[in-house]
Amino acid sequence: MTSLANYLIISAILFSIGAAGVLFRRNAIIIFMCIELMLNAVNLTLIAFSQFLGEQSGQVLVFFVMTVAAAEAAVGLAIVIAIYRNKETVHIDDLNLLKG
Amino acid sequence: MNYNDFIAVLPLIILAMTGLAVMMWDAFEKVPSRSPLLLTVVGGMGAIVAAVANLTAAPVIAFGGLFFSNTYTGFFTIIFSAAAVLSALLSEQFLKEREMIIGEYCALILFSVCGMVMMASGANLIVTFLGLETMSIAFYVLAGIFRKEESSNEASLKYFLLGSFATGFFLYGIALVYGTTGTMNLAEIRTIMLGLAPKPAATYSSLLLTLGMLFIIVGLAFKVSAFPFHQWAPDVYEGSPTVVAGFMSTAGKTAAFSSFILLFPYALLPTAAVHLGSEKIQIVLAILAACSMLYGNIVAVSQTRIKRMLAYSSIAHAGYMLLGVSALNENGITGVAIYSAVYILMQISAFGIVSVLEKSDGNGFELEDYVGLSKRRPWLAFLLAIIMLSLAGIPPFAGFFGKYYLFLAAINAGMVWLAIVGVVSSIIASYFYLRVIVLMYFRQANDQVEVSVPEKINTSFVAIAFAVAALLVLGIYPSLLINTIGYLFR
Amino acid sequence: MVTRKNAVSSALLLVVTFCFLAGIYLTLQAQFLAVVQVAVYAGAIMVLVLFVIMLLNLKEERFSLTGNWKTLLGVLGVGAICAQVIAIILLSKDKIPQTISPKAAVQGTVESVGMMLYQTYAFPFEMASLVLITAAVGAIVLAKKKLQ
Fold first, then answer.
1. A40 found inside a domain
2. What is the pLDDT of residues C37-76, one digit of tens each?
C-alpha cells in the first residue's frame, strides 16, 4: 500500500514542474498548460488527503477546481485568440507595449 | 436550507439576477442603449438596501456553515456594491465614446461583485475559492474588453497568466491547510487553532500547516499586488480601460483583503492561537507590508504617466492594508475596513477623473497633460485636488483617519517599527500626490490657450462629485464611519 | 511536457499525464473523480487547447533554460522550493495518517460525491454556475468576430 507521503511528494514534484514551466516557457498556450498541470497536482494532494482522512469535502473541492479550470480554459484561450488577431503571435516576449 | 438562509444571501441573489437580467435585456433590445447601465445601478442599489436591512439581523452562518452573514460581511457587501454603482456611472461617457458593448460589460461587473461578496462571506474554503475565481475570471475579461487595442489585449493576457498562476499557489495552500486540519470550514479551523477542538483524526503537523499558510499568503498577495508579487499590477492597470482599472484596483483588492481577514486573523491565526508558527507568519505579513509601502511609493515618485503613478501607489495602499492584517488584532480589522471604504472612494474617483480627461485616441495620460488644468476644467481640478490630498493622507480628509487607525493597530500589536515605516512612506507619497496639485494650479501651460470649459453635468461628474462629497463628510466627521464600524464589529 | 518545442506534442503529453493521474486517483479509490478527470481534463479542456493550437498555426517557440539569468534564477528557486516542500512532507511523515481511511472506498463513489454536492454543498454548486456563465460571456465577448 502506497503511503500518503508518497502521493504528496508526487504532487509536489508535479506542481514544481508546472511552476518551472510557467517561468521558462515563452508560448502563452504552453504556459497555460503548465498552469493546468499545477492545478492537477493540487487535485492529487486534495484527493490523497481526503481519502486518508476519510473526509469528503476535499473531493468536492476537486470537482469545483475542475469546473473552474474549464472556465479558465475558455477565457484564457479566448484571450489568446483575441491577441493573435491583433498581433499574429502568442510569444510573450513579443508583447512589449506595457513595459517600463 | 431554509428561509433565513436565503435572506442571508439576498444581496448576492439580487446581484446575480441583475446580471442575468442585464444580459436578457441587452439581447432583446433592437437599438443599443444605455439602459444596462441603469439596471446595474439599480441592482447595486438593491444589493446595498438588502445588505443594510441584513445588518440588524442576528449573525448566522447560512447553509450549514458555508456562508457568513453578519455585520462584517454586510459592511463589505455594501462597499463592493457601491464600487459597482460608481463604476457603472463612470463608464457611461467612456463606453459611448468607444462604441462599446454595454450589456456584457455591465453583466461582468455584476458577476465580479458576486464573486467579491462570496470572498467576503465565505465561511468555507470552497466558497472562498469559488468567489475568488468568479471575480478573477470576470476581471481577466474586463481588462481585455477593448478587443481592438493591443495594450488592452496584453493587459488581459498578462493578468490571466499571472492570476491563474497565483490561483495555483492559493489552491495548494488550501489543500495543505485542509490536509492538516481535516476540514474546510473556517469556524472549525478556528476552534482547532485555538486548541478548543479535539484534534482531528490526523495528528496535526504544524510544519505542513505553516507551509500551507505561506502558500495562501503568496496567492492572496498576488491578488492584492503586494511587493514581491506586484509586477503585473502597473502593466495591467495601465493597459486596461481606465474605469475598469479603477474598479479592479479598488474593489478587487479590498475583496482579497476581506478574505485575508477571514483566513488569517479570524480562522488560521486567532489571537492566543496554539499553533507554534503563528509569530513567524505575522513577521512574514509585516515584512510584505513594509516592502510594499516603501516600494510602491518610491517607484511612484519617478512615474511620468498618471495611470502608472496611480498603479504604483495602489501597491503602497495594499501595503497599508496588509499592515492592518498583520497586526492580527481588532484594531487592525477595523482599520482595514475603514481604509477599504475610504480607498474605494478615493481611487475609483481618481481613475474616474483620469477617464474623463483621457482623449479617445488613447492620449492624455501624461502628467504634463495636467498642467494648468485648474484654468481649463476648474471644477474637475478642484475635485482631483481633494482626492490627491486625501490619498496623501493629509489630516482633514478621510484618507488620514484610515491610515491613523492602521498605524495604531500596528503599534497596539507591538510593531512600532512597522508604523514608522508606514509614516515614512506616507511622507514620500505626499510628494507625488502634491506634485499633481502643483502642476494643476501653479504651473502655466506655455503653448495652450487657456479656455475654461464649462463642466457638463453628466453621470461621471455626478459620481465623482458624490464620492468626493462622501470623502469630505467622512473626513470632517470621521466618527460617523468609525462609530458605525465599531458597532458593526461588535 | 514542459521541454517540448512543439506545442502539439506538449499538449498530447499533457493528455497522457492527465490519464496517468486518473490512474493514481483510482489507486486512491476515488472512482468518480478519476472518470471526471479523463472526461473533463483529457477530454474537454485539452481538446479545446489542441483546437486553438491548430487554429493559430504556431511557429516553433524560441526558449532556452539557461539563456536568461532571470528565468534560470526562477527555475532554481522553484527547484529549491520543491526540495523544501518535499523535506517538510518527509519531516511530518509521522504526523499524517498512515493508512487509507476505511471510509475511502465508500466516499469515492458517484453516489456519495453526488450526495455531498447536492445536499451539503448545494450552495457552492449553484455558485459554480456563476463562474461558468461569467466564463461563457467573457469568452464570447473576447473571441467573437464582430460585435453588433
1. yes
2. 999 988 899 999 999 988 887 766 666 655 677 778 888 8
Q: Is residue A29 part of a domain?
A: yes
In order, the DSSP letters of B112-136 are HHHHHHHHHHBSBHHHHHHHHHHHH
C 56-95 near B (Cβ less than 8 A): 85, 88-89, 91-92, 95
Partners of A65 on chain B (C-beta within 8 Å) are: 129, 171
Residue A100 forms part of a structural domain: no
What is the CATH number for A55?
1.10.287.3510
Label residue B201 by pLDDT band (50, 70, 90): very low
Q: Are B108 and C134 in contact (CB under 8 A)?
A: yes
- For residue B60, the SS3 value is strand
In a domain, A83, yes or no: yes
Task: Select the residue of A15, A17, A72 nearest C2 (Cβ to Cβ).
Answer: A17
Radius of gyration over every alpha carbon of chain C, rounded to an integer in angstroms = 21
Q: CA Rg, chain A, in Å?
A: 17
Asked if A76 lies within 8 A of B140 by C-beta distance, the reply is yes
Residue C107: list chain A partners with CB under 8 A. 50-51, 54, 56, 59
Give the confidence band of B221 by pLDDT, cuts at 50, 70, 90. very high
- Count of B-C CB contacts under 8 Å: 95
Contact B144, B235 (CB under 8 A): no
Q: Which residues pair with B60 in a beta bridge?
A: B69
Q: Are the beta carbons of A19 and C102 separated by less than 8 Å?
A: no
CB contact under 8 A, B164 and A72: yes
Question: Burial level of C16, CB count in 10 A (0-12/13-18/19+)?
Answer: exposed
Helix (H) or strand (E) holding B186: helix B186-193
Residue B446 burial by CB count (10 A; 0-12/13-18/19+): exposed, middle or buried? exposed
Interface predicted TM-score (ipTM): 0.95
Bridge partners of residue B62, in order along the sequence = B67
Contact B392, B434 (CB under 8 A): yes
Nearest CA in chain A to C53: A29
With an 8 Å Cβ cutoff, is A87 touching chain B? yes
User: DSSP 3-state assignment of B69?
Assistant: strand
Q: Is C16 on the interface with A (CB under 8 A)?
A: no
Q: What domain range is A54 assigned to?
A: 4-87
Q: pTM score, two decimals?
A: 0.93
Interatomic CA distance for residues C98 and C101, integer angstroms = 9
Instruction: Find chain B residues with C-beta within 8 A of A97's C-beta.
Output: 150-151, 154, 239
Most distant CA atoms of chain B, gap in Å: 77
Mark yes or no for CB contact C96/B112 under 8 Å: no
Interatomic CA distance for residues B484 and B468, integer angstroms: 20
Q: How far is C4 from chain A (nearest CA, A)?
A: 10
CB B256 within 8 A of CB B116: no
Coil/strand/helix, residue B151: helix
Q: Which amino acid is at B41?
A: V
**Which residue type, as a one-letter code, is found at position B416?**
V
d(C-alpha B281, C-alpha B209), whole Å:
11
Q: Considering only CB atoms, which chain A residues are within 8 Å of B167?
A: 39
| Domains in chain A, number | 1
A13: contact with B, CB 8 A cutoff: no
Q: What is the pLDDT of residues A74-90, one digit of tens each?
A: 999 999 998 888 888 77
